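To assess whether the prediction recovers the assembly geometry, we first specified each molecular entity separately, as shown.
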Amino acid sequence: MPENEQALVDRFCSGDSSAFQELVERHKKKVYYVAYDITGDHHEAEDISQEVFIKMFRSLKTFRRDAKMSSWLYQIAVNTSIDSLRRKSPKRQKLMVRLDKTSIKENPPGSGITVVDPEQSAEASILQSHISQALQRVSPRERSVFVMRHYNDLKMTEIAEILNVSVGTVKSLLFRAIKKLRKELSFYLGNSGLEATYE
Amino acid sequence: MSDCKKCRVMFAEALYEELNAEQKLFFKDHLLLCKKCRTKFEKMASTLKIMNQRIRPEPGEAFWNGYQIRLAKRIKEEEILGAKPESWVRTFIRTLSSAPRWSYLTTAALVLVFIGIFIGRMVFSPSVSELQQGQQISSITSQAESRIELVNRTHNYINRSKLILLAMINFDPETEDPYALDLPYQKQISRELVQEASFLKGELADSDQRRLQNLIADLEVILLQIANLESEHDFEAIELVKDGVESRGVLLKISLTDIRQFIKKRSKTEPDAKVSHELRII
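The predicted structure of the complete assembly is given in tokenized form:
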């Protein structure tokens, strides 16, 4: 049974550095992926995720016992990612198009993508490119809410807590983000056959 | 709020299945009745289905295996950077931020006072150029005053010399005159005038009054002859003085100088064309 996070924090406070390593091990993927989803750049995401853990390393001793560690880390990751995006000029923002055969093969199960032949691979590549571009067109705050809800499975109440806003604001940001994405991807909505039904 | 509006507010929650049972029922019923809302919702849901096709590239096992090492290295680097001696700028900023409030207020007050003094000096005190101009004016004025004073002294000298010369010229040894030449007195005055002449010549040369300087030089020679006379019966010497006065035209020169002086004085009081005309004639 994995050790309680609070116990790990206590161990770290008493000078056990392996507790910090354990905490990093537990959260590194979540933090990296949320940073990647917001920035769309692997190197930027790694840099941000490391910054998050450095901040954690420095302020772990003052960490509130009643707070949720993952929410706290998400909060730092989102804020650092948004700051990073603001520092960059829009021209310099890279689009997250890093698709090759390897990445498609390493695609996690359940994504719905199966590469059959080169033609399909090219089509998939174009779609990925369009999705990435559509995400970059959404504002950093709207994008943060969208990626947290859509790709990181956080509930709206959790997102509200992370961003320190009301649930209503989260709903509004999410609605606006989907609306913008719909506009950007309108080409695929006409003939994709992806009709939705509410069960 | 209309049902359509109420329904659209629920879109985000409905898409991610976060509606409660009551909301779910309302939403479902409304979509069955309202085609517009149903179309909109379907489009949004379709968008999410497309977004589901996004592939998030997996950095790979090697990346994750080395993550802790890279992080530890970075933490070490940051600690080294943090342990470096603080720059003076940072120290200054830290000192400023830790200073009490009254020190800011005092500094602000002092700065305001200095700014006030600076503005006051700039606006109300004369500038350097004005001071220089004033000095120039005062030096010009003093120069003009000294020049006038020199001219007056020279004319005074000329008048006194003129009296001596006239006494010498008008002296007639044949005539019994109760007011005949008092030569010892004339000699004494002449000696004094000769002494004064050397100073006057220098001053006139400095102030570029060449005409007056030449006249004083002529007078000096004649006055020196008078001062060197042995007795009033030395008629040959007295005749030599008279010849000198005549040959040099000293009395004429004195008269011309007097006229010029007179015209100058008049032109100062009545600056008209008549005076300038007279000057041109002279």
